[in-house]
Amino acid sequence: MDLIKTCTATQQLHLVDKNLSKGASGSDQVDSPRVPLDNSSNDMLYKDFRMLGEKMGFDKDVTRNLKQKNNPTDELLQMWSVKPEATVQNLIALLKDNELQRMDVAKILEDWVERKGST
């Protein structure tokens, strides 16, 4: 657990960037397609850096502005890394949140933590 507590979001980012680098489309592979909130709504819910940013406590305007960056996920994790709650364990919990449900990214981080703990 000490490893989890001492690892910053910036260190996590390097893992995510390494394993989920930009795809052929030029967008972050961490980002997922839009998913409708419900069948009757035209509003769309994004299960990507925007929702993660909101779960991290950032304002919607802040997360919306990240879209203009080359790597919005990197920028988000850099901003979050200065907060005292920025640990791998907390990032995994946010990724597993009922709304976000980014189990794919959470699994990569869990595997990384397990490998680091065994070295």
TrEMBL record:
GO terms for biological process: signal transduction. Residues 20-41 are annotated as: Disordered. It holds the Pfam family Death. Signal peptide: none annotated. This is Death domain-containing protein. Gene3D superfamilies: Death Domain, Fas. Residues 48-100 form the Death domain. InterPro entries: DEATH-like_dom_sf, Death_dom.
